[in-house]
Design goal:
Chain A: It is a lipid-anchor. The complex is a heterodimer of chains A (206) and B (672). Chain A is built from seven helices and six strands, in the order βαββαβααβαβαα. Chain A is an alpha/beta fold. Chain A has a single domain, classed as 3-Layer(aba) Sandwich (Rossmann fold), CATH 3.40.50. With 672 residues, chain B is α+β, with helices and mostly antiparallel strands. Chain B is built from 26 helices and eleven strands. In chain B, the strands form two sheets. Chain B has a nine-stranded antiparallel β-sheet, covered by helices on one side. A two-stranded parallel sheet of chain B has the order 7-11. In chain B, strand 9 and strand 10 form a beta hairpin. The N terminus and C terminus of chain B are likely disordered. The chains are: A alpha/beta (206), B alpha+beta (672). The interface between A and B is large, with 47 and 62 residues.
């Protein structure tokens, strides 16, 4: 039976345009930073193998376009997510203020089975900028927000310098795994979509 | 309902099918819609509901609204929905019979309907959106005389209708799972694709020659497939019927192609490049000086397809049975896709102009650009014509005058935001947000390309100024990511701020809908693409359907910025000037999509890619697509698809101008 267990963990990175979603993903997966990432159009993902307690998992990290106008695409990409990473720029109040929108939009579009307990992780990125002098969102403020949303884990990172990125993603992977295991408890290993569809249509009483 | 009843209900909508069943000759199933009668006309069908003055609005223009009659009928205890546009009552002569019938909904069984969303605003028309289980949606049906509530009440008497727990305006049809789990379907609505049933008048509305008949015949078959998609799972699969039909139609072509090539090879007359393409090996050529700007994004990723040629078919795992390509594209393109000529130079261009500088035959010029592009130094003179900024019949003097007038106009527009003081900006959130977005994007647009590279690059600032000015010029559309990708080559070519701005404005007249807030322009193009694949590669279409890939989001980037991220800089410019000629079609970019997908079809189906894998695969094709052979394939596909291809693309699909606006551009002669 254990051979059928899930090994793919799907993670979605969301946040305003230019907060560093692509950079974080590339820093974590490729250990590289470039000043020349382009604005993400549509969506893309990278994968990385992670190990937990002798089990090997594939972390599939989805990077999406940050402009609100593209949010309607989310439906196709958010489906089946195990963890959602919200990213803001500690030097931009607006990117912090928008976190609520991103969180709600994700819950609406991904419609996870247990929205109350769906794992989010918050990342405040770009702590390196200007030696921290241009920072406008305090750690305290960010932590208060996390507390108000059911104790979301919080990390402050610099994708440019690689600060705290590994730690943040380890937490992300752990949370994704947890949400995956909960699903395993009440979902069968495989879901035959074809069968369930058929049941639905033949169950018609008309 | 029992299993048997369900089997029956699936088939009951097709009289011919039923008849063939009775005769025990199901294999001879016919889908000729000229003969088939819909259940509403059938003797057994019971009319449940009828509503007049229910309309669809294919575009935002009132003159293009199509009114019709909405019906619910019941046959063998299955409820069907149909909407038939009125005949000959249109207020707009431009709206052809074909356009109207494209949207006809002929007897869709409710077993295929996932949900109905109602929209009943206090002001304005009520409408419903019907979403199918396939994930596709019909365009909104506007109830001009009201009555959405009554309509839903009647539906509810015949099928199980449950209100979504998440959205009180969404009604799930035959949803026996937990409504909570199913709310996703309701939320998909804003992004659902509109469906046009693609039924064409059987006379084709065209000539009576054999060609016309053959096309109309294909059209009918396509429509019958669309309307009875449910039966696709059954053993007698109408899509098979269609693909067999297409195979027959195109086998002639393929045979012709084969004969032609054999001849070419035997004559051994220096078709070396064709020889290569014939062997299915795309020719990769990257000029040395441009190789440094090849996608940095794709340097390394663990599951990369880059190691092997993505277009190679040989390494298909698992011995998966890949259905044959009904249209062998490489062979077709040998017949119909013409090889590229060297780019047009100044001498040649001057020959297209009369003594005062008018383009005498714009079509000939566009043809020339289509088949070879333009030498770089000449682009700044020809692009403004292609983009519609210069009129083809303008003289040198008129263009000179236009440039000076437009330069002043640009300065005025630019002043609008330049005069915003820091104090005013504090109270102008929208301005600050737009400027912030633009600032962030220009510094990450093509910075590896020498024209924009380096700190404090002035061209980056000019790009910012133009985009900010555009966001004031078109305040409703504003700025959207992807616009800087379009502007970058234009500025590089024009090397003049005002001229670049006006060329960009002209381009956005056509492609602005790509950036609409509701993403409608993108959805119509993705929808048209799905129709073209269905027409030109039914097995691939079926594969996408089975694998939940029909939304074609994996082609989103291709279409949004017309392959800007897929080719290196110079190649992108070559492609764009070809697309902008609108020589064979305004929508050649969609045929380019089909051409690339067809080149990868064996890989996609052979490796049984799911949506995620497909998206990754498509993203990683970037930098690995051969432009010339792809454009040639696209041309061949476009010619092959002919009228049926054009009919698959709903009117008003970008970059088509909205129909009402065509008169604003009378100088574009035969560009329609």
């Amino acid at each position: 039976m254990p051979s059928r267990r899930r090994t793919l963990l799907k993670v979605i990175i969301l946040g305003d345009s230019g907060v560093g979603k692509t950079s974080l993903m590339n820093q974590y997966v490729n250990k590289k930073f470039s000043n020349q990432y382009k604005a993400t159009i549509g969506a893309d993902f990278l994968t990385k193998e992670v190990q937990f307690e002798d089990r090997l998992f594939t972390l599939q990290i989805w990077d999406t376009a940050g402009q609100e106008r593209f949010q309607s695409l989310g439906v196709a990409f958010y489906r089946g997510a195990d963890c959602c990473v919200l990213v803001y720029d500690v030097n931009s109040m607006k990117s912090f203020d928008n976190l609520n929108n991103w969180r709600e939009e994700f819950l609406i579009q991904a419609s996870p089975s247990d929205p109350e307990n769906f794992p989010f992780v918050l990342i405040g990125n770009k702590v390196d900028v200007d030696g921290g002098n241009s920072r406008v969102v305090s750690e305290k403020k960010a932590k208060a927000w996390c507390a108000s949303k059911g104790n979301i884990p919080y990390f402050e990172t610099s994708a440019k310098e690689g600060t705290n990125v590994e730690e943040a993603f380890q937490c992300i992977a752990k949370n994704a795994l947890k949400s995956g295991e909960e699903e395993e408890l009440y979902l069968p290993d495989t879901i035959d979509v074809g069968t369930s569809n058929q049941q639905r249509s033949t169950g018609c009483e008309c | 309902m029992s299993m048997e009843a369900s089997e029956l209900q699936d088939l009951s909508d097709d009289a011919d099918y039923a008849a063939s069943q009775q005769q025990g000759s199901a294999s001879m199933m016919r889908c000729d819609s000229g003969k088939r009668s819909s259940p509403s006309e059938h003797d057994d069908a019971e009319l449940i509901y009828l509503k007049d003055n229910v309309a669809i609005h294919p575009t935002q223009f009132a003159s293009e609204r199509i009114s019709g009659r909405l019906k619910l009928t019941k046959q063998d205890s299955v409820l069907f929905l149909s909407w038939i546009p009125y005949k000959g009552q249109t207020s707009n002569a431009k709206l052809s019979e074909k356009d109207r019938s494209l949207y006809t909904i002929t007897a869709v069984p409710f077993t295929e309907v996932r949900s109905i969303r109602r929209h009943t605003p206090a002001l304005g028309w009520q409408y419903v959106i019907v979403v199918l289980t396939s994930g596709l949606a019909f365009p909104p049906l506007y109830f001009y005389n009201g009555g959405v509530r009554e309509f839903l009440a009647i539906v509810k008497q015949h099928v199980f209708l449950a209100r979504s727990a998440e959205d009180a305006n969404v009604f799930l049809v035959n949803d026996f799972q937990s409504p909570l789990q199913r709310t996703l379907s309701s939320l998909e609505l804003p992004s659902s694709l509109p469906v046009a049933s693609g039924q064409y008048p059987s006379d084709g509305g065209t000539s009576n020659d054999n060609q016309g008949r053959a096309s109309a015949d294909v059209g009918n078959r396509v429509s019958s497939v669309n309307q009875y998609g449910l039966r696709k799972q059954k053993s007698h699969d109408p899509t098979r019927d269609l693909s067999i039909h297409l195979l027959e139609k195109f086998s002639l072509v393929t045979k012709f192609a084969r004969d032609t090539t054999t001849q070419l090879f035997s004559e051994n007359n220096g078709f070396g490049s064709i020889d290569k393409r014939w062997n299915n090996q795309p020719v990769h050529s990257y000029p040395e000086k441009l190789s440094n700007i090849a996608e940095e994004k794709h340097q390394e990723s663990p599951h990369s397809y880059l190691d092997n040629d993505p277009f190679k078919d040989e390494e298909i795992a698992n011995n998966v049975d890949v259905p044959d390509d009904p249209l062998e594209v490489n062979k077709l393109s040998l017949v119909w896709g013409k090889p590229r000529q060297p780019p047009m130079g100044r001498k040649e261009f001057t020959a297209f102009l009369d003594s005062e500088g008018r383009v005498v035959e714009s079509k000939a010029l566009r043809e020339r650009v289509f088949y070879g592009g333009i030498e770089h130094q000449l682009r700044s003179e020809v692009w403004p014509f292609l983009l519609g900024y210069y009129a083809y019949d303008s003289t040198y003097a008129e263009r000179e005058y236009l440039r000076s007038v437009k330069q002043m106009e640009y300065a005025t527009l630019k002043q609008q935001w330049q005069s915003i003081s820091p104090e005013q900006a504090k109270r102008f959130t929208k301005y600050r947000e737009r400027k912030g977005l633009i600032d962030k994007d220009v510094v990450r647009t093509d910075r590896a390309f020498e024209y924009y590279e380096g700190d404090e690059n002035l061209n980056v600032n000019i790009m910012r100024d133009i985009l900010l000015t555009y966001s004031f010029y078109n305040f409703d559309l504003g700025y959207c990511q992807g616009m800087s990708d379009y502007l970058s080559p234009i500025l590089y070519v024009m090397e003049n701020e005002s001229e670049s701005f006006w060329c960009f404005v002209a381009l956005m007249e056509r492609l602005g809908p790509n950036f609409n807030r509701d993403q409608n322009g993108m959805h119509t193009q993705l929808f048209a693409l799905s129709k073209l694949v269905e027409l030109l590669d039914t097995p691939l279409h079926n594969y996408f359907k089975q694998n939940d890939c029909l939304n074609y989001f994996f082609c989103f980037r291709w279409i949004l910025i017309q392959f800007k991220r897929e080719f290196e800089y110079e190649k992108t410019m070559q492609l764009w000037e070809v697309l902008w000629t609108h020589y064979h079609s305004e929508h050649l970019h969609l045929y380019v999509c089909v051409a690339i997908l067809k080149r990868c079809r064996s890989k996609i189906m052979g490796e049984q890619m799911d949506f995620d894998t497909l998206l990754k695969f498509i993203n990683e094709l970037s930098g690995h697509i051969d432009l010339e052979s792809t454009v040639r394939d696209a041309e061949a596909l476009c010619i092959c698809a002919g009228e049926n291809g054009a009919a698959s693309i709903p009117p008003g699909t970008p970059p088509s101008l909205p129909l009402d606006d065509i008169m604003l551009y009378p100088l574009e002669d035969d560009v329609l």
